[in-house]
Amino acid sequence: MSVLAASPVPLVVRTVEIPAPDDLLALLPPHGISWVRRGQGLIAWGESARLETAGAQRIDEADAWWRRVTRHALVRDDVRQAGTGLVAFGSFSFADASAAGGSLVVPRFVVGLRDGRAWFTVIDGDGLTDLPSLEDALGDASPPAPLPPIAIDEGDRDAWATAVASAIERIGAGELDKVVLARAVQATGDGPVDVRTVLTALAADYPSCWAFHVDGLVGATPELLARVDHGLVTSRVLAGTIRPTGDETADLAHAAALARSSKDREEHEYAVTSVTNVLAAHCASVNVPDEPSVLHLPNVMHLATDVTGVLSHNASALELIRELHPSAAVCGTPTLAAAHVIDELEGIDRGRYAGPVGWIDAAGDGEWCIGLRSAEIDATDPSRMRLFAGCGIVAASEPEAEWAESEAKLEPMRRALGAHIDA
Ligand SMILES: C=C(O[C@@H]1C=C(C(=O)O)C=C[C@H]1O)C(=O)O
């Protein structure tokens, strides 16, 4: 069942060009929305409209709602590129049955920066009479607060080993080929956690990832589910992981070994196939590189494939993610069997971890990632959050190695929360 917000009121939208800010993220007011990569992207705050949704149709409902909102909006846009004019930010639960559901939020104010060009958008539900200045819209927000001491659980190693061993057994029995198992750890601060402080750390440590905060889900994800930009679609598939040692020569040798590893290649191919099949149905042609590349991040190296295509009938970013989710990078192969094994073995509600998170504009362009390397902030207590990490399990997986991999994937959030990690 889904809960639709009151039917959308016509929104009045104005986008103007502004001087490029030195530091986009530094403008973010408390609790603001963030979508920042390599210093560029969108930040937003306030709320002009919202959809809350849940269930198997959650992304379809968001798509239908967004079409209604955009059809009725009055937009004056001086900049006219992806992310200007009317935009909404959203995040959706991984599982159809999760109580976390999903939401689309139309903010009141947006600042965007792309290729040196910056803009300010104001979205108003009550008719826009005067355009406020950016300074007035920002108000005098307090600077980001230092983090309180935060205790982070270690997690249950035995429970993990048992779950991974059962998954390997079921793969061996022919029930499925791959399943992604995840675990959650609880973080509890002595006081509220200022999400801006966390985002600043994530953006500094992981500049090539998307430092995001949408409706209480915060993280730095490397995985692009779909970017739609003027008829072009791009998806970056990641699957197959090892941990760097810090020794550059050794790491290059490890990266080469990762690219040759049959276990990692198998895991990767399942994920690439699941994304390519969906995009092929919407594109005249899809380009898939023959060989994956290796994406180097400070905490992990991943096999990566950028799948690209030219859309043949203008599918919107929401239409595409509805079909792309859940890809084999976060669920498994075959999808239904893997979802079933996840339900049985994981013992957690993933909430919006590993679900789609991103933004869409009125033209249907947008950028949606998979909500990885992330934490869900407790809606009733901002000093508490759950951190998540998962690993693709195939026949050749080993529970100990998968534990180490999940630890590496928890590292970005642990470090951003002030934990000191031994290399
Ligand atoms: C599930 C996660 O990551 C996914 C799983 C990967 C793997 O198993 O190798 C790699 C990248 C992601 O697609 C996570 O970070 O929690």
From TrEMBL:
Catalytic reaction(s) noted: chorismate = isochorismate
EC class: isomerase
An annotated Gene Ontology molecular function: isochorismate synthase activity
Top-level taxon in the UniProt lineage: Bacteria
The enzyme's E.C. designation: 5.4.4.2
Span of domain Chorismate-utilising enzyme C-terminal: 157-409
Pfam families xrefs: Chorismate_bind (PF00425)
Record keywords, A-Z: Isomerase
Record-linked NCBIfam families: isochor_syn
PANTHER family linked to this entry: ISOCHORISMATE SYNTHASE ENTC (PTHR42839:SF2)
Family assignment from sequence similarity: Belongs to the isochorismate synthase family.
Protein name per Swiss-Prot or TrEMBL: isochorismate synthase
Organism: Demequina muriae
